Amino acid sequence: MIPYVRFEYEECVDSKKNILSTQMNLLNSIKKLESYTILRKQELIKKTLLKNELKQAISQVNLVLSSIPSSQTSIKTVKQSSSQSAEIIINSKKSQDIESQLYEIREKLSKL
Prior knowledge:
mainly alpha
């Protein structure tokens, strides 16, 4: 014999609302996480570009320093550091999918 549990209508509606709200919160969290990863990749690219610009500026400073007569006291050249290039891949399809899911959940919540 299988035991059955009976739920009242209001309990069912409340449970459904809670489940849909939880899904919506999870999708919002995923959306924010994806946004964060995109921003971190952009930050890495900007840092790399800045590093390259600094390398160019340092090389120009070293060029100017080398053209100054050597009769002055010792001139230290500026050290250069190596840099790595970074790529960014923005997947707009994922964010559109999340947006559509959020819209559907909002519609379901409004119907309840």
